[in-house]
Amino acid sequence: MEWGGFNSHKVPGASTRFDHAIDREEDPTSQRFEKQISGRYLGEITRKVCVDLMDSGLLFAHADEKTKEAANHVFRHKHHFTTPMMSAIEGSEPNYVHSLGSDHSKFANYFIHSSVENQHKIRTGWVLKSAMDAVINLNGADGPEAFSTQTAMAQDFVNMWSNASEHDRHTITQVCHLVSTRAARLAAAAVVAVVRKTKRTKCTVAVDGSVFEKYPHFQTDMEHAIDEMCGASYQLKLVHAEDGSGKGAALIASVL
């Protein structure tokens, strides 16, 4: 089901001033629900919240000028803080890594079995590597200018995260978590609404998209929200469907 165009701003409490700002700046009144849950916009929502915290003296207030300059480059430029950066930050959050267990990956194994001091260094390295791998994409750049922009974005992020205090890192991580969890819960609410409309109590729901597939704990957050809304009365299973939109369109075309 294509639901990006749902006007979620009409639902009391479902949107914030940050959502409204993005809607004013990018294709006003169109795809409002998509702007709250898709990978293109989660980083932008987080960026706007962080700018608000910076302006309120709650983020980078005690940072040196070099760190503040790097933070300004990351957070005060449109779409310079991206969803892959969020994913790198949340995917290395200590509690999340411990929940995965040391067998999950070499990174998790190194992190869990290291001293607190080394954990800080290991997390820094993993966040920077993950963000750099996601942001710098030669195949995704349509020319030298685009590749140069990617490189500058990645360098700004490295400078910001490397020099940020533990307090500022924690604050940014919490904002990422709030934005991604809200997106998962909104997506879950849409799934539940559709399933209730069908009057089915047991079904498998195929979900397309890189956020559902790759973002840390996104699928789990959706599942928890569905359990909260449905309880034991519904049995809904979420599975990832690669290119669900394309396959769905092909199926419809084949039966017309």
Return Rg in Å.
20 Å
| Biggest beta sheet summary | 2 strands, parallel
Instruction: Let me know the average pLDDT.
Output: 90
SS summary, helix count: 13
Q: What assembly state would you assign to the polypeptide chains in this entry?
A: single chain
| Main structural class | mainly alpha
H and E order: HHHHHHHHHHEHHEH
Overall geometry: globular
* Spatial order of strands in the largest sheet: 1-2
Give the count of structural domains: 2
Report strand %. under 5%
Low-confidence runs: 249-255
Helix content: 55-70%
Question: What is the straight-line distance between the termini?
Answer: 18 Å
Question: What topology emerges from the helices and strands here?
Answer:
Blueprint: H1 17-25, H2 34-37, H3 39-55, H4 65-75, H5 83-91, H6 94-100, H7 106-112, H8 116-135, H9 144-163, H10 166-198, E1 202-207, H11 210-214, H12 218-230, E2 235-240, H13 244-255
Helix pairs in contact: 3-5, 3-10, 4-9, 5-8, 5-10, 7-8, 8-9, 10-12
How would you explain this protein's 3D organization?
With 256 residues, this protein is mainly alpha-helical. 65% of the residues lie in helices and 5% in strands. A two-stranded parallel ribbon has the order 1-2. Helix 3 crosses helix 5, helix 3 crosses helix 10 and helix 5 crosses helix 10. The chain is globular. The C terminus is likely disordered.
